[in-house]
Structures are given as C-alpha cells and as structure tokens.
Amino acid sequence: MKKMFFMIWLPVSILLGGILGLIYYSESESERILIETTEISHVKLQIKSIGADLDHVVSDLIFLSEQHEFHEMLESTKEYSPKDLASDFLSFSLRKGIYDQMRFIDEKGMEVVRVNYNEGNPAIVPVGELQQKGGRYYFRDTLELDKGEVFVSPLDLNIERGKIETPLKPVIRFGTPIFDARGIKRGIVVLNYLGEIMINNVKAGATTAFGDAMLINSDAYWLIGPSPEDEWGFMFEERKAKKIANVFPDAWHKISESKSGQFVNAGGLFTFETVYPLLEGQQSSSGATEPFAPSTDTLGAEDYYWKVVCHVPLDILNQRAQSLSSGFLRLYMVLLALFAVGSWFLARANVRHRKAEEKIRKLSLAVEQSPSTVVITDTKGKIEYVNPKFTQLTGYSFEEVMGRNPRILKSGRTDQGEYKRLWDSLTSGKEWRGEFCNRKKNGELYWEAASISPIKGSGNVITHYLAVKEDITEHKKAEEALESYAGMLEESNRLKELFMDIMSHDLLNPAGVVRNSSEILLDLESDDKKREVLELIRNSSSDLIETIRNASVYSKLESMERIECMVKDLGDTLKEVIEDFEYQLEDKGIEIDFIPEGKHPACVHPIIRSVFSNLISNAIKYSPHGSRIEIAIQGIDGGSQQVSIKDNGEGIPEEDKKHIFERFERLEREKAKGTGLGLAIVRRVVDLHGGKVWVEDNPEGGSIFLVNLPLEGSSKLT
Ligand code: ADP
Description:
28 strands; 45% helix; 5-stranded antiparallel β-sheet; alpha+beta; 22% strand; 9-stranded mixed β-sheet; binds adenosine-5'-diphosphate
C-alpha cells in the first residue's frame, strides 16, 4: 500500500512541481512585463501631463500679451493707466488659480501691474508696493526676446524679498516682451506659474505606479524626490549634495545618456523619459540662485530638460517576486496535500483491485481445477462456461457446447417432472438439488448429483445459472451392490434365525431327554463303571443344553437394538437364578453365600437372568470342589445397584481381562469347560441395560465379577 502510494504520488508531485515551476516562471515574466509596462505608461502619462500644463501656461501668456487693454494703455499719451489691465489680470488670476503672480514690468524693469494670488485670494498690489525688477535674470532674459518669443525660467523656488519663500513655493516664470503699435518693446508680461500644480499632477499620475515618481532637472537635482528633504538641492547650500547622481550614480549615468529608457540595476528598476519644456521659439536661461544675479547661461530647447523617472526599489521587486513565489509554494503544498490524499485513495483502490483480481484468479483456478463439473449458462439456458472436468467427464469440448443448451446431455432416463421442478425452483430464485442420468458424447450413461443455483446481479436480478455436479456413477453402482447385499444378508439372517429356532426347539428337547434319562439311570445303577459312563453322558448333555441356549440367546441379542425394562428387586432375581444351580452346587460340593439386605430395585428386562446365570455358572465351573462363592448386592451412587460374584477359582490373568467379554475368547482352549459365549452375552445384556460389567482379582485367590445396573435408563437404550 505504502509502495503503491509513493509510486503514484512521487511522479505526480515531480510533474506538478515542473508544471508549477513553468507557470511560476511565465507568471514572474508577465509580472515583470506588467511592472515594466505600467512604469512606462506612468512615465508617459506624467510627461503628457507636464507638457499639457506648460502648453496651457504658454497659451495663457500669449493670450494676455495680445490683450486689447495693453495696447490701449501703451498707446495712451498720458501716464500709464493700468487699472483696466490690473482688473483683467485679477479676474484672470482668480479664474485660472495657477499663477502666483501676474505682472507687467515696463522696459526699465519697474513693475507696472502686479496681481498676487495670495493662496486663492488674488489682489492687485498697490502702486506704492510695486518693485523694481530690472536686476532679475528673468526680466533681462525676457526683454531680449522678439515678438512672440517666450522665456521659460527654470523650475525653482520663489524668492521673496531676497529670501526663499516658505512654505516652499516652486515656480516657473513665463515671460514674453510687449510691443506697442510702432513695434517698440515696452516691457514684459511675466506669469509666475505655481510649479506645485504641475508637481502634484506628476505625483498624482504616479499613484498607481509600482515605484516612486521623480522629477529631476538637468543638473541631477530632485524637483520631486524620494523625500521632501532630498528636493531642491540646488537652492539650499546644505542640500547641495542631494542629487540623484550621488545616490544612484550608475543609474543617473544611464538616465542622462538617453532620452528615455528602462533598466534594472542594483538600485532597482528605473524607467525614465526626458521632458523638454521649451517649445519652439521659447528660450530659457540657466537662471540664477542668487536673487539679483544674472542668468549664467542661455539655454536652448535641447538643454532645458527635466527627467521624469519612476523608480521601483529592488526590495519592492524582490518582495513581489517573493510573494509570487510563496503564493506558488503554498499552492504547490496544497496541491501536494490534495494529490497525497488522492494518491492514497487511488493506491487503496488499486490494492483492493489487485486483491480482488487475486481473489478472482484463485476462484477461477479453483473452478478450473475443480474435481466437480461446473457449468454456467445464461438465463435462457445457453452454455457460457464449462470447466475442464466437464470436458473430461462428458467428452464435449467447451467449443462444442458453447451457446448450446445442457439438454444435449439428456439420456431420457430422468423423469420429466424433475426438469419441471428444476425450472420452477430456478425461476423463483431458489437452488435446486437433484440427480440426473445423463449421456456422454460417446453414448455412455452416467449419473450425476447436481446443485443448480441462480446467480444474481445488481438489483437481485438473475443473470446466470450455475450448475455444480458430481459424478456419482460409481456411488450408484455401489448403492445397487449394497442393496443386493442387504437382500442377501436378510436372507442369511432369516436362515440363521430358522437354524437357531431349529436348534432351540428341535435340539434342546432331545438333549433334555438325554440328560434326564441319564439322571434316571444314574439313580438306578449301582455299578461304578456304568455310573461313570452315565455321569459323562449327563454332564455332556448339560453342556450341550447350555451351549444351545447360549447360542440362541446370543443370536437374538445380536439383532436386538433396544429392550423394554421394568423395575424389579435384584435380590429376588438372584435368588431365583441361584435356585436353578442347586444340582450343580451339590454335585461340586460348593456353597453360595448370598443374604441380601433390604430391597435393591433396578430397571431390568427378564433377560437379565442370563447375566447372573452365566456368571454363577462360570464361578461354579472354574472353582474347585468344596469351595465357596460369595454373592453380594449393594446400592451405589446415583441409584445404581452393584452385584458382585466372588469365587476362589483359578482367577484370570491381567492380560486376558479385557478379552474375556469378547465372543469365543476362551483362555485355554484345551481346558475349555464352556462355549465362550457366556461373557459375551453378559456384556451385551448389561450394555442393553445401560450398565457396566468388569472383572477384578479376588485378593484371597480367584475372581470377582462386578455388574452395575442403573435404576433407570435401560429403556432409553438404543
Ligand atoms: P465358557 O463357556 O468357556 O465358560 P465364557 O464366555 O463364559 O465361556 O468364559 C470365557 C472364558 O473366561 C472362560 O473360558 C474362562 O477361561 C474364563 N472365565 C470365565 N469365568 C471365569 C471364572 N469365574 N474363573 C476363571 N476363569 C473364568
């Protein structure tokens, strides 16, 4: 089972590992592609957003520079009356909400109109508070431009009255010169665009990106950085070193080399694109970090750029790869466990299947090698299977009988009613047992005992019939022989009984006449010689009578299977038997000592007399002249009676004790004084009474014969 489990589970686990590995690889590839494309699209979005913001500002600037109010103001011969322009600027500032300052500065650098946004509360700056800006780089750089040209300042922090305004206010100044009707340059319009808006748009565009958004100027300073402390390094003395070029030198090298791209290095995944804020006809200067310093350089569109960078740190990339791999690992573990359960069930089913197959194999071998004939038919009686024993017995091969009906074996000697009973049993789902006399292929008849039973399939529906048959031809023959022997035995018994009857009636009478006559003659004869002969005749005729009686009794006992008994006092029976031996006792001068005390009931048949008469006769026969025979009777445990007959005769050797009760077992034939039937009769009669008889040694010399007879039970004898 264990082996089978591993045989299924291991290859599946390895295969599954391989498949999951491949899926993991392709997943991690698509994950990588997803991250890369997401980052690229975010960078593109941010670039677009920056472009759109700046375009918007430039179109606002151009629109303002072409305002009717300007021309009215500039053409007026009087002093400037900037009121209308100021109110126009005011409503523009309010509506747009993206300009921190909107100014018109005259050609001498003096602010003429200025609207401050004031965090959503725009206001026209009173004339007295207007400032001279002639020294600022943006004024100078813008005033140099031609009509329609735009100056775009670097993105830096607003400086108010010589100091960096806090909270930090990133701005880009957009300026364009204003010309009067005669084409004379009369000043500049400057819009301080709130860089925060563009920065926020860039940041907002990166919220769904995997990494951090960065906006970096061409000097490698962060405008949007990993943290606020890293930003605007070029504006603060203490942050001068906070450049991407210092933190990710390798990455910056690559980023500054190309306009756009994507790469992975030790710092993570970098996706970048360059944004050029200057449109055609626009100019910028490098700006100046000092409030009134001139701009250090004039920049063309190519030189004024920012880098939008999306940076996914390496630990985030690793974390994603790790969560993907741990997800796959978990999935692998779960699937392994599931497959383990599945494999276990499969292994179990497989083992069971194998066991079932083995069982079927054994069963089919048993059927194939069975010494009985096995036939399986369908429900219509068409043969589907026969085993080799069938072929061996009938001579028909499987091919010959396949699809045929077993009636091909019919000999016509089986009763038609038997077939009817057979089919009645089978169709009602019961087994049928019976015998057939069938015919083999060679015409020979044979007998078989058959057991035919229906085979039931699912739903208890009969699908086949199974016949298991034994060849009983030999058995039948033996039965017939036995029947004939029984007849012969009956005949011989009848003859034996006839013979015994003849013996007891026709021999006993003449023998009795001989004995009686010899006794009469003995009484009359006084001659010793003649008396000797007469005594011989008398004794021999007595033996003859005893032999005839015993033989007759024994032959009757042999065929007797049970006896009817009735309760009698054994003391009375014994007294009657002893009286019969009066003559013989006198003759041998033997005395019998028997004085029964009380009653000794036992359930006996009159034939019990033959037990006592045989034992007493033997005691007299095998005892010397003038000896004593002691007869006693006593009740013993369980209500039985025990009779003992003790003599002082020759005794019986130990090795002969178990044989003397068998028929014709005389110890010394030459000294034989009897027929050898006496003790056999005793044993048979005692057995019929359910009692027991045996012999013991008399310690004073001689034998003691003991008989136990139960009070009840002889009637139960069989
Ligand atoms: P039998 O007609 O020879 O007496 P039994 O069957 O009565 O036949 O006895 C079988 C044998 O058992 C006898 O031949 C004898 O040898 C022996 N036997 C029986 N009773 C006695 C006895 N009381 N004393 C000695 N031997 C005995």
